[in-house]
Amino acid sequence: MLALQQVSKTFTTPQGQLLVLNEINLTLARGESLALMGESGSGKSTLLHIAAGLEAPDLGHVVIDEQSLSSLNEPARAKLRRQQLGLIFQQFHLVPSLNVIDNLTLQARLAHKEDGEWSAYLLDRLGLAGRERHYPEQLSGGQQQRLAIGRALAVRPSLLLADEPTGNLDEQSADTVLALLLDLVKETQCALLMVTHSARVAAPLDRTFHLHLGSLKETKR
Amino acid sequence: MILRVVLTLLSHYRRHPGQLAMLLVGLWVASALWSSVQAINATAKESYARANALFSLETDQLARSDGIALSIDDYFLLRQAGLPVSPLLESSLTIENTRLTVLGIDLLTLPASNGNSRTTANGGSLTEFISPPWQTQLSPDTLQVFRLDRQQALGATPSIGEQRLPPLTLRNDLPPNTLVMDIAAVWALFGEQATLSLVTASGALSQPPEGYRLTRATSLASPEQLTDSFHLNLTALALLSLVVGLFIVQAALGLAMEQRMTTLRTFRALGVPGKTITLAILLELLLFGLIGAALGLISGLWLAGKLLPDVASTLSSLYQADVQRSLALPWHYWLGSVAITLGGLLLAGSGVLWRATKLQVLALGQSYAWRFSYQRQLMRMLQAGGLAGAITLGLATCLSLLPAGEGLVVSFSLVAALLFTCALCLPPALNALLQLLQRLLRRRPLGQWLAADMQLQLPRLSLAMMALLIALATNLGVSSMVGGFRLTFLEWLDQRLAAPLYINATPSTLTPLNEWLTSQPEVLETLPTARGNTRLLAINSAMENERNANESALLSSIAVFGISTVPTLTSQWPLLETFDGIPRAWEALAQQSVFINEQMAVARALQPGDSVLLETLQGAVWFTVAAIYPDYGNPQQQLLVTVDTLMQRFEGELASTGIVLHSEADTDAFRQALSTEFDLSPDTLVNQQEIKEAATQIFERTFSITRALNGLTLGVAALALLATLLAQAQQRQRQLATLWALGVPRATLALLPLIQLGGLALITGLLAIPLGITITWLLVAVINVAAFGWRLPLQLFPLDIAVMLLTAFSVALFAAALPTLQLWRTSPRALLNEETQ
Ligand SMILES: Nc1ncnc2c1ncn2[C@@H]1O[C@H](COP(=O)(O)OP(=O)(O)OP(=O)(O)O)[C@@H](O)[C@H]1O
Ligand SMILES: [Mg+2]
Questions:
Q1: Which pTM does this prediction carry?
Q2: Chain A residues lying within 8 Å of B837, measured CB to CB
Q3: Tell me: the pLDDT tens digits for B530-543?
Q4: Domain map of chain B by residue range?
Q5: What is the pLDDT of residues A123-175, one digit of tens each?
Q6: What is the enclosing helix (H) or strand (E) of B576?
Q7: Which residue ranges does the record assign to the ABC transporter domain (chain A) (predicted)?
Q8: CB contacts < 8 Å between A and B, how many?
Q9: Residue B834 gets which letter from DSSP?
Q10: What are the domain boundaries of chain A?
Q11: CATH number of this structure's domain A2-218
């Protein structure tokens, strides 16, 4: 489903060059879930963004569904993102002008894949039922995070890229959300790449990787 | 501690220099336009005050009834009769294109109440003034004509042609471009060329002596009275730009405040008292106010300096009011300008201050309650709009009860109230519209986002949109008024100037000249005109019964203008209203009827068919008003009669003669013959083209300041919009980046802000059109009548309107294009990462 081949990324900052990713290789099959761990600032979000085609790697290739992102033009990449990817950002990036239900279904509607029943189910599972008409700023941090998760799931993506989706949740809600994510992976055979700090959250996933000083190492369990 | 708070507050602008620029631009513009107009007004006032101090307004003037120029014999005759008359010799000099009036006075006989009797107090001894080599008294601002400065001026004797002026003495209270000297000095310089007039102390003679007529000082309106409405117009425009400027300031302050809320909360959490924070904000405002006022004053003075010559020539050609061409500003002007800027800033900043005092240490989320509070704000706007609407209606009712031609201040207030009503209702209206759009576009996610996002931006944009609406509507109003006036005026000029050639000469030349013309074979027609004066004693209106002209009317004399009713003229002469048709009106004029100009009809509430009791040489006589004619550019009331009637019945003299030649006649040869026959100077003969050009020039000058201010105001509003949009460009990018991450292609993203802002500006522009048309109507049909006494037809210029709409649209597009451009240049992913500011 997803393959990173020899991906390198260096940021040029006023303070000098910053090598964040160094020849990373990673493959992720359908229905497979993978946890990405690493200390803060190690480049986890960067890797996720590169995998989503939001950012281009300096070297190497990203292949999604047998298509190399670098061979696609911008509209085609956007279409791929819209149709196949579910993105959960560390900072949520909800749309403040839209209410909960419109936010949740936004990507699905953009991709012409709206499914009312599915959305209602998600709202319910995420504990947001009854808050449909509320606006993002009226939600707590955890509720906003759950909404961001819902938005990614509403499209029924084939690849789900999640950046600390449980970072703002208490243990119990974290477990619920995690269960939901894993259910979905099983149900739709989608692939999940999830960044997390917590070994507890990483445990139920198929594999765990550590990012350290630009290289990726699988953690044996 | 307070210093630390202020410094931290100010540090915000280091990261957001755009906001600082917007704030200062707003303040600067508000204060610049206001202070420039006030500088012009103050300078004019000063000039009027000096003119008032001069003889002409405090003394009555005598002239011969038969129209022949006064001579020294008249003086002797009147003095022999024991009348207290004083001679005045008047001549003029042209130096470097500036016309200087030279007045020769006889201090020994000049009425004592007069400003000139102060001469001896300021200007040295009486002996120096009245004995050779005499003195030339002039105001310091006239010195530049002679290329002299104050140091060199005293005692200098500039040469004029072959002669030299008496030594110069400065006198601050003289009007600009006026030289005052002893009557003997003028005689020595100009001899027979100088014209003699005779003056007496105001009210000294109850009756004019036999064979003379008296022009009373009170009948001559002071320049201040005449030009009042002109200055009021300027002030109104300046006030408008002040308001627009303050809108920008308010928007900038609000934005900066919003973004600094977290900082302020942190301060409060760290133990800084609320009072200190309020005080710090106040200090910050004061600092900006002083910088803004200083910038505004400097550029305002520069602008005033640029505009003043045009204003001065307008005032002198329209009202014969002399205004100096360099600024003269009293101390209270400076104080007033700074006070207005600071006051405006505090007004605009009051909201911010209010928010600072209500600041809560703990606030949930960054703008948790904004949606609720904005809804409340919209409600308040709607209420304020309703109140303004009620005031508008009240003022309109008040105006409709006033007689036509009155209530200039009420009319301007009406325009202001109308503008405010619409401006206040604009954000709620836009909000409702966007709400509706959001519903309609539910099925189209991008469309829905477009409307919803716009609604979210509205709180920040609404002030700029209000400013834009006001500026667009006013711009439309003023430009249609000016454009309409231009068309009407030029057409009217064409109609009035029927003859191709005109002679302006003294009555003594014109009498034989008219005789001579009739015997010339080349002449097809002569169109003599005459000028005179009468007094309006009573009015018999068809509507009411006979009523006496009121007190002031009895005092004031009315100008009478005589024309000849030949077809060349009557077929073209424009009439506004007649009693029973145009041909009958002209027939009536040849008999016992008069025409009146629109100014008089408005001021006296007269209609065709009414009659007026006029003082004539044969006693009081009733005349019927047969028609009303337009008389643009004339500040005074006027009656129109035939030349014959005027010469027989009123005190008057020939004024000019228009000549129509046969088509095959040699015009140049004829002019030559005419000049040599009567020894005419070249400038007595003017052709129609020259008059038209001169009149058009006057017209253009009259409105150059209006147009300049108007254009500037629109520019300022555009700037306000641009600044506001740029200030939130960063935030826009984050919104767009989110959509991009969700799979909206960049090309689509680029279009979204263009549609949003272009659409909003277009809607505002479209709303401005009916408002602008209403304002045009108020300007031409109400304010113009009140200010100048004439009404203009309502004319609209679709091209101007289109240009106006396009301006608004392109500013919005330009501003919208910037975030888009940024989106293209930097990776949207970088934008996604930026922390919310
Ligand atoms: N656009 C950018 N320009 C320069 N440096 C960047 C940029 N984006 C990220 N970095 C740097 O790259 C490194 C990796 O950033 P990244 O956001 O991927 O870290 P992370 O592993 O997700 O950290 P965290 O766990 O705190 O979210 C950081 O040191 C960050 O400062
Ligand atoms: Mg991260």
A1: 0.75
A2: none
A3: 888 888 888 877 65
A4: 1-49+271-367, 58-219, 506-679
A5: 998 889 999 999 888 888 889 989 999 999 999 999 999 999 888 788 888 88
A6: none
A7: 2-221
A8: 88
A9: S
A10: 2-218
A11: 3.40.50.300
